[in-house]
Amino acid sequence: MGYVFDLGAVLSGQYLNWFLIGIATTLALTAAAWCLAMTVGILLTLVRMIPFRPFEWFVALYVEYHRNVPLLVQIFVWYFGVPSLLPRWARLWINAHHGEFLLATVALGLAAAAYVAEDLRSGIRSIPKTQYEAARSIGFGYLGAMGYIVLPQALRIVIPPLINQTLLLFKNTSLAMAIGVGELTYRTREVESYTFKTFEAFAVATAVYLAVSFCIMALGDFADRRLKLEAR
């Protein structure tokens, strides 16, 4: 007897709720990690642009660590290793506030920040140095010249690679299931385990990942075109 494809078996009752919870958790994890990645990435870029060798070495070491150590290992370091170094009250606080989600956000966000910093550095290098010098000559300090003159132009240039980093970050959230975060892949495994409908369960997950990825690309393309129009 052939296999009977039954999508309704995984998209009804509690299974549908599990999928919806997984999607919401994945989107929340992506958004939180993205905000952290952008913040840290910009800070790393600003620090690296300061002409002081130890700062450059620190950022270079940070980038190389996150580029060369598997992301799953980084997540394990944050989940199993870092809390053991914290005082007891801090560990209790983390455990009481969705520790898996919190530490997965930190691991994913800090890893993505390394790539964001590299993209921003490439964008800044494409801005003529005379613009920075002109900003300093009219009274801007280092942060003012970078924040008001250089970084806004660099951000427009690096939007396409930043969209790629956002897509990568979104897909990498699936690794958080390894420490028990109930994101989409985790919930898909739950549905598959209860229904034994492996193909249907992962077909739903695949469709959701594709749909969200297309939305991210469309939003990025829209933002890219708007910023280029404003820059004219």
From TrEMBL:
It comes from the Bacteria. Signal peptide: none annotated. It is a multi-pass membrane protein. GO terms for molecular function: transmembrane transporter activity. InterPro entries: AA_ABC_transptr_permease_3TM (IPR010065), ArtM/GltK/GlnP/TcyL/YhdX-like (IPR043429), MetI-like (IPR000515), MetI-like_sf (IPR035906). Keywords: Cell membrane, Membrane, Transmembrane, Transmembrane helix, Transport. It is found in: Cell inner membrane; Cell membrane. This is Amino acid ABC transporter permease.
